[in-house]
Design goal:
Rossmann fold, 6 helices, single chain, 18% helix
Length: 258
């Protein structure tokens, strides 16, 4: 049986246990969460948010579009000029900023339960995390988190949220993919739009002191197709050099719309 080597299958999110889990968040995915929270009557314009895994600021910049104030930290300095400082969010002696209403982040997958439990200790209103849909699975996560602290809302995306390691890519802009069988032969590469085999969702927790009406309290809310509507000019940087078609090559390689 031949192996399925399509880019959608091969671009799966799998990180070593000691990795920083560097997968930048597309801005439209964060806007989808904020639109939902506003529908749930959350007064974001007078609330403060904390992004404790801010990476290069992709999520923090979008949070700043709606929240009155956004505090940003990360355990690693990726060069984001708006970062307040390098902070290990899971350190027990952490001194958090005062008056944080929401903690919203794309946490390292392997540390997801720890991030969520810590965030629930510190946030005054709620916590939202962007995780794989498979995050719901597993006895260990159930015992550590979901059994005693089930989420208020699960918001799976109908569209794929395309996230690649270390780079933020516009899913409508093709990138160069060398041939897997002969990566040194440039004529065998091709241009294709970025895709992902991983599906994502937002999980949202409201603190017990926050009440919602019966309609708003319905557990699962699929996020309908909205990428086009929630994408803004300037959301994506130029395609990095290592993902551009080689100079001098004819722009005729196969373009795959995956």
């Amino acid at each position: 049986m031949s192996q399925n080597r399509s880019s959608a299958v091969m671009q799966q999110r799998a990180e070593p246990t000691d990795s920083l889990d560097d997968f930048p968040t597309p801005p439209w995915a964060t806007r989808a969460l904020l639109a939902f929270l506003k529908q749930m009557n959350q007064p974001l314009d007078v609330q403060r948010a904390w992004e404790p895994a801010c990476n290069r600021g992709q999520m923090a910049r979008v949070l700043s579009e709606e929240f009155a104030e956004v505090w940003t930290t990360d355990v690693h300095d990726y060069g984001y000029e708006g970062m307040a400082g390098r902070v290990d969010f899971l350190m027990p002696d952490l001194e958090p900023p005062v008056g944080i209403d929401w903690i919203i982040t794309n946490p390292p997958f392997r540390l997801g339960p720890q991030f969520i439990l810590r965030a629930l200790e510190l946030a005054e209103v709620g916590v939202a995390v962007l995780v794989r849909t498979s995050f719901d699975e597993g006895t260990a996560r159930y015992q550590a988190l979901f059994r005693d602290r089930p989420e208020t809302w699960a918001l799976p995306f109908v569209e794929r949220v395309v996230m690649w390691q270390g780079v933020l890519l516009d899913p409508d802009v093709p990138v160069w993919r060398p041939s897997k069988d002969d990566p040194h032969d440039l004529t065998k590469g091709k241009l294709e739009k970025p895709s992902s085999a991983t599906s994502y969702q937002w999980l949202v927790w409201l603190k017990p002191c926050v009440t919602v009406d019966d309609v708003a309290a319905s557990f699962k809310r699929r996020i309908p197709p909205c990428r086009k509507a929630l994408t803004r000019p300037g959301d994506y940087p130029p395609v990095p050099a290592h993902l551009r078609a080689p100079a001098g090559l004819s722009p005729a390689p196969l373009l795959e719309n995956l």
